[in-house]
Amino acid sequence: MKAEMLDIFDESGTPIGVAPRTEVHRLGHWHQTFHCWIYRVEQSKIWLLFQKRHPQKDTGPNLLDITSAGHLVASEGPADGVRELEEELGLTVSFDALDEIGVINDVLETPELIDKEMCHVFAYACDQPLQAYVLQAEEVTGLLWAELDEVERLFAGDMATIAVHGFLSEPDGTRQEVELRVEQSAFVPHEAHYYQQVFAAVRSLGKKRQAK
């Protein structure tokens, strides 16, 4: 299979070339990704939708993460990232329909890799019922809603667990509706500033929708 080639950057964000994805992660080169957080406003509450990552993912297996995300390959820009919504969730969305949060640098290190991402982060308000989503089975194994207020309190250390609800996919493709209580350790350990910026931006967007 042909190696996925990514644009790579130095610490200041200046392009320095192109490299295979495996090398990018092995050597810790900065590279670009697309992130989209789906949220909904329900009366006075704002809800964030998390995907559950497949157990065989190279980073964050089995953890709750951004609703939809993926790498931008060499020569691609943020607008190309909307394909991730289609591929992972079966959701057809135009780039213009997304609300831009901004570019957030995020570093995740494990014994196996150094993942330095320049994340092009967006939000999308969507009231579509969960059963309408079509998951990419090798990437995503569930979708779970969490109330933004509670997620923020969890990450601030003010709550030990929070409630999430949605569905998890069985190996045979059937879906099990679930209501769970989860700790912060159930989420991909993005840097604190990443989550803080995302939560603040979604809160602002949600309040604007509530005001309409």
UniProtKB/TrEMBL annotation:
**Where does the Nudix hydrolase domain lie?**
29-168
The UniProt entry, under Pfam families, shows: NUDIX
Molecular-function annotations in GO: catalytic activity
Gene3D superfamilies attached to this UniProt entry: Nucleoside Triphosphate Pyrophosphohydrolase
UniProt superkingdom:
Bacteria
Which PANTHER family did the record assign? ISOPENTENYL-DIPHOSPHATE DELTA-ISOMERASE (PTHR10885)
Q: What is this protein called?
A: NUDIX domain-containing protein
